[in-house]
Amino acid sequence: MAQPDRSGGGDIPGGGRYFALVTAPASAVTRFLGACRGEVVAWSYFLKMLWDFGRIAYVRTRMNLRSFITGFAGVSGHEALTAYRCNTCEEVVERTCGKGNYTALLGKVAIITGASNGLGLENARCMMKYGCHVVWAVRSPDKAAAALQRLEEREGKLQGKATILKVELSDLRTIKPFVKDFLALGLPLHYLICNAGIMAPTEWLPSPQGFELMFATNNLSHFLMTELLMPKMKETGKTSEVRIVVLSSVAGACCLNINPEKLPCPKEEYHEFAEYGVTKALDCLHAQHLQRHHGSDNIVACAVHPGIIGTGLGQGNIGLTSLLYGGMFTAIFRKSVAKGAATTLHCALSPEVSAQVKSGASFFYNCAPQAPPNIMAPGKNKGLDDRLYERQLELVRPYM
């Protein structure tokens, strides 16, 4: 007695093939409808942003239509046109260290925040491959250990060492213990890569200290970490150049103004994209301040815009995620993680960056110095970086 076909079509001869023919178009239609819905969400969010920039007074003080257009279109457009010059992260290390010279960074030590995924993981992988001892500053050591295991299974044993240390960047109470744990290792510090961050929660959220969450995570935590590590970096700078690389964004280039007295952002004036832009502009201005005040200590500090990269950043904001990572509007601006991570290591390792920064460059993308618009333009707001420094120092002083 013939047995029924169990491949998906019941008793129909060749039912599996029939089922596939029926379901394949259905799957394509589902994907198409999903893409259409995503496009509607993306454009709706984009139009809402433009509306907000034009009509909400407290938003316009930080980001308006003009600054958004000059910042986003100016930086993203130029980035897209010059993307052909951007290498992958590994190509940058090969160029600066010599391809196959896997001991080139032996004796060097880096701290990378958020090293367990995305851009941070790619930076850690490439630096370790060429011999660097990378300290993974992460929220979840278990997750980082699993990521490291997968990395070594794929790459083989890397030349450089990984040390995983716990830190919760949203909670300032964890920064000093992290620094204490690092200093206990007795290591120099050649590279501080302030990579981790969050993007545009749809509502105002408090950090454990009651600060707006993006400001606490993206700015105050890295500010405090840098301050506490500065004596170690100055000590290292006596024998070797030190690099500080701060992850900024095109959103920072859209920022028109920052009032130090309004930091952190009050709940009633929160706008997710405008405030994200403030935090990323702060990153760039912090790098400028570091360079101006510590360049004489053999420290080179700069900010980078990695590009628009689908790393899971902003996953809690469906509208912005759809716009940046799914919509047709930004498709030409997107990069892979391998290319997005490249400028960070270019700024950390490339010899020419030192002279460029000392000549006034502060903002890089596509592995080259760029001229940031609006508030991030060096010298545009004389003394603002000092006032922002003093305000942030005031806020973190209880945790030093």
UniProtKB/TrEMBL annotation:
The family line of this record is: Belongs to the short-chain dehydrogenases/reductases (SDR) family.
User: To which species is this protein native?
Assistant: Zooxanthella nutricula
* InterPro entries for the chain: NAD(P)-bd_dom_sf, SDR_fam
Q: Name one GO molecular function term.
A: oxidoreductase activity
Q: Provide the alphabetized UniProt keywords.
A: Oxidoreductase
* Superkingdom, natural source: Eukaryota
Please identify the protein, giving its name as recorded.
Protochlorophyllide reductase
Q: Which residues cross the membrane?
A: none
One Pfam family in the UniProt entry = adh_short
